[in-house]
Design brief:
Elements lengths: L9 E4 L6 E9 L3 H8 E3 L14 E8 L5 E10 L10 E8 L1 H13 L3 E2 L4 H8 L5 H12 L3 H12 L1 H24 L5 H5 L2 H19 L1 H9 L1 E6 L6 H9 L17 E7 L2 E7 L9 H13 L5 E7 L6 H10 L4 E6 L20 E3 L8 H13 L13 H22 L4 H19 L5 H8 L7
Parallel strand pairs: 1-7, 8-10, 8-11, 11-12, 12-13
Antiparallel strand pairs: 1-2, 2-6, 3-4, 4-5, 5-6, 9-10
């Protein structure tokens, strides 16, 4: 990404490409209102110009080019700094959503001195101007890409500052300890007092506990943001592909009575009970000398290492067989639901399954008649989340967050260990400072341009 200059005025189209009912061109920066005023003519020619307009007002009129030709009839919204998205002056032009019309408005703004915005530059400016911290900026992208109600909920919480507030609380607790250490360093004769202070020990333990809780939330947060991978596995001809089709509510996989019909991995996504799920239909595992069969089974085994949840599909008419157990051996330490299919044929044979899975991890279904499918969907979501997301839950959703918290925790545990051993206060304070630094990097109080480039290049232009 090119170097960002905050003194520039930037412009971009903020609505998706193509035709639509409305298209929005956004201009932000020191000359935004001046450029907007030059382009815009109010319907009432005697009305004041945009340069005199109050913040958070909307004005009707037309966009006029340098030759006084009308480009489009529009609504123009005025947002004055610092109470705008970027904390700069912003003009938003809402015109008709034709691609050529919006492009002409964009070109006119560029000809009047605006620079085309880089991907994510509006949000990057919001961060650099103090409107939001780095975790909130990342939540903007998560909200745009959210596929389900629950992922929207998590993104909105992060955008509103729940994670930021939790990190700030931890930082404040660390700063209190650090300030006391610095004070004791000025009075060497009183060192022994700090080591015998049980309140310091309790504070260390509380902060370590809070960091561990946040780190442990990553798996759930990642699933809610990115979706969970649910792998269908089982021996041939137990109905894995039929089950995939019924969960997708459409025919995606080829279904046949011939064992081994599925030779390649099929992956499709669906929303189940508010969770985005990637369903992966694998080839059955059986002995074969066919090179294609063997290649398919090797790919299946690789997916056994990656899944968040496994649907171990069995034939309810035969119950648990030796071939089924061999498959279970590869996933026995994973989250698993035993799905006994084909109950429409009359039997519900679950002989011996109780030795391997609890009753609430066993479901009886018919992919043909859809019996038991709703209960299976609920069970899938229940096991993915483990428990419902509480209203006050604070989750981390990105690997960057997890790494920063792990670095903070590692430094804090070293500091605490040195404290318990009555080691030098300088050493304790040094590790404590590193712990604080990792948290500051997490929220963006400390950052590098390279880090910002990596984060904001994921954004679309116009946001």
């Amino acid at each position: 990404m090119p170097q960002i200059h905050l003194e520039d005025t930037i412009v971009a189209v903020s609505t998706p490409p193509g035709e639509g009912g409305i298209g929005v061109v956004r201009i932000s920066g020191p000359n935004a209102i001046q450029i907007g005023s030059t382009m815009f003519r109010k319907k009432d020619l005697h009305a004041s110009s945009l340069e005199e307009a109050q913040s958070h007002t909307v004005h009707y009129g037309a966009i006029i080019d340098q030759n006084e030709n009308v480009i489009d009839h529009v609504l123009v919204s005025v947002f004055r700094k610092p109470k705008s998205y970027t904390a700069e002056d912003i003009i938003e032009i809402s015109g008709h959503g034709g691609a050529r019309v919006i492009q002409k408005i964009l070109e006119l703004a560029l000809s009047l001195g605006a620079r085309h915005a880089e991907p994510g530059e509006f949000t990057r400016r919001a961060f650099l101007n103090g409107r939001m911290d780095l975790t909130q900026a990342e939540a903007v992208l998560d909200l745009i890409r959210a596929k389900t109600d629950k992922s929207v909920e998590v993104a909105l919480r992060q955008l509103s500052g729940t994670l930021s507030n939790e990190i700030q609380t931890i930082k404040n607790q660390l700063m209190k300890i650090y300030a006391h250490l610095e004070a004791y360093l000025d009075f060497p004769d009183e060192h022994l007092e700090i080591y015998s202070n049980q309140d310091f020990k309790l504070q260390f333990e509380q902060i370590i506990g809070r960091l561990k809780t946040l780190i442990a939330s990553f798996k759930k947060g990642e699933i809610l943001r990115e979706g969970a991978s649910v792998v269908l596995c089982g021996k041939p001809n137990v109905g894995k592909s039929s089950l995939l089709n019924v969960l997708l509510d459409r025919d995606r996989a080829l279904v046949s009575e011939v064992p081994g019909t599925t030779r390649d991995i099929l992956e499709e996504s669906v929303e189940l009970e508010g969770i985005w799920v990637r369903l992966i239909d694998t080839a059955g595992l059986w002995k074969s000398q066919n090179s294609l069969d063997q290649a398919a089974m090797e790919r299946t085994k690789r997916y056994f290492e990656q899944g968040d949840l496994f649907l171990w599909v069995l034939d309810s008419q035969t119950g648990l067989l030796e071939e089924d157990l061999k498959i279970f051996e590869t996933i026995q330490n994973k989250k698993t639901i035993a799905v006994l299919n084909k109950i429409d044929l009359g039997k519900k044979n679950s002989n011996g399954l109780g030795k391997y899975l609890a009753d609430d991890h066993i479901c009886f279904v018919s992919a043909k008649t859809r019996d038991g499918i709703k209960q299976l969907e609920k069970k899938i979501v229940q096991l993915i989340l483990e428990h419902e997301l509480g209203q006050e839950s604070v989750l981390i959703t990105r690997l960057r967050h997890k790494h920063a918290l792990e670095h903070s925790l590692d430094a804090l545990e070293k500091s605490f260990a040195a404290f318990l051993k009555n080691e030098s206060l300088e050493l304790i304070a040094l590790d404590l400072k590193q712990s604080l630094g990792a948290l500051k990097e997490l929220v963006g109080e400390i950052y590098s341009e390279d880090l910002l480039d990596v984060i904001f290049q994921e954004f679309c232009i116009g946001k």
